[in-house]
Write a structure and sequence with these properties.
This protein is of the alpha+beta class. The chain is built from eleven helices and twelve strands.
């Protein structure tokens, strides 16, 4: 079985590397004997998708292209799958090893380990152990959201996706059609930036608010992908990091330490409450809601109204 699969993967890789134009699934099935022997279309499709994912895991860059008739084809350009000679010194190898450690608990753990093995084969000095260097540093990026893996693959393959998303102000999720650009972690949460087809604009989505499965859609992107996607800067502005005003809140004693860290002034009110003045920017209402009954907004009035609206939406949901 292992030999048969290896032969099938090799034949698929050769077909994709040897073509000058995208090949459709039908053409690939007709070119590879193992696919011709598949019992049904469903069996072939499952086999092909697994093989394509396996080749990508091995490092082959496979492009998905749609022609004028709407038919999807695949190819692996030689210039995209050719690496220049790789030379790394001890410090560079240590940096790569540290980056690989980041993903030890995430979906990319296998890819990170495989990448280091390929660097060994490409000439990484045998006396350099990228895992051991700077061993006192133990970075981790937690990935708990089920949406992370399908969105990561969709960003890589430039595939549109559909998912149900619940905004902080909404009681129920709504369907979103998105062309995913990039994923980024900020303050312990993962965010997706992309083009929202329904709204015709760039949007950022928090992965923890995606409900149900992320479903892929065929076809090409309708909007250009920017050279630089500022996920962190966008989320920071929504979280009030670029605040230019102030708000006054009441905060229960021994609660809301992140708010206290940002406060420009704190005054004891008695009866277990303090009054804080904090920076006020876009998205502060969503942050305050997370502290529930421990926070009461005093002013401005529009911030208080926004927080009340969000709390009512949560209560209805």
């Amino acid at each position: 079985m292992a030999i048969a699969k290896a032969e099938r993967l090799m034949n698929l890789a050769l077909c994709l590397l040897g073509t000058r134009r995208p090949l459709s699934k039908r053409e690939l099935r007709e070119s590879i004997e193992a696919y011709l022997e598949a019992g049904s279309d469903d069996s072939f499709n499952r086999m092909f998708e697994r093989d394509k994912d396996d080749l990508r895991e091995l490092g082959l860059v496979i492009e998905t292209v749609e022609n004028l008739d709407g038919e999807v084809g695949y190819l692996a350009r030689r210039d995209s799958n050719r690496l220049p000679p790789i030379t790394l010194d001890a410090e560079e190898a240590a940096a790569l090893g540290l980056a690989a450690k980041v993903w030890q608990q995430a979906r990319l753990a296998g890819a990170a380990s495989g990448a280091l093995q390929k660097l060994r084969a490409a000439g990484l000095p045998e006396d350099v152990d990228p895992y051991e260097a700077h061993g006192a540093l133990e970075p981790r990026i937690p990935v708990h959201e089920a949406a992370f893996e399908p969105l990561m693959l969709a960003c890589r393959d430039r595939r549109p996706v559909v998912f149900d998303y619940r905004k902080a102000t909404a009681a129920h999720p709504e369907q979103r059609h998105v062309e995913p650009w990039a994923l980024e972690c900020w303050r312990g949460h993962w965010y997706l930036a992309g083009w929202d087809r329904d709204r015709g604009a760039e949007r950022v989505f928090r992965l923890s608010r995606i409900t149900g499965k992320v479903r892929s859609r065929g076809g090409a992107f309708s909007a250009p992908v920017p050279d630089v996607v500022t996920v962190r800067e966008t989320v920071a502005s929504w979280a009030g990091e670029t605040a230019d005003r102030s708000a006054r809140i009441r905060l229960r004693k021994d609660a809301g330490y992140p708010l206290r860290a940002k406060a420009t002034s704190v005054r004891e009110l008695g009866d277990g409450w303090d009054e804080l003045e904090i920076p006020y920017g876009h998205g502060l209402d969503a942050w305050l809601v997370e502290f529930g009954p421990d926070v009461v907004v005093l002013e401005p009035a529009e911030l208080r109204a926004d927080v009340v609206d969000r709390l009512r939406a949560v209560a209805k949901g």
